[in-house]
Design brief:
Blueprint lengths: L1 H14 L3 E5 L6 E2 L4 E4 L9 E7 L6 E6 L4 E3 L4 E3 L6 E3 L4 E6 L9 E8 L2 E9 L1
Parallel strand pairs: 3-11
Antiparallel strand pairs: 1-4, 2-3, 4-9, 5-8, 5-10, 6-7, 10-11
Length: about 130
Amino acid sequence: MRKWLYLFLLLVATLNGQIKIKPVDSYGLKKVGRNTYVLKLNNSRQTLVRLTGKVEDGGYQKVMWKTDKKYWWSNGFAKDEFKVVNPATYSNNGVVNTMFGPLPEMKGKTVAITASYGRHKDKIYIKLR
């Protein structure tokens, strides 16, 4: 009986404290799937989009953001990794925000973005057109 109680409590703990992320509506993204969006890029400069999330634990949590791949930028003299999403932010009253900024050269790619804190994660996909 105790074993089932522990399993039940573990399941409840897993369901609680989740994080759910999405782009802010006013940035012109079109939702095409459950966690998939399409973004039309600016042809001459970086396109900026605010991503927001809800941390169900509320309060003040450090949220880590990452992409599935590394992206590179070069000015002809130097080459460096280009972070298309800010790597860390903190929630305030359960709400967390970060910026996503793909470059025109990334057109045609799909970027998977994961937000996580503790053992909780959520992932969205943004197709760049």
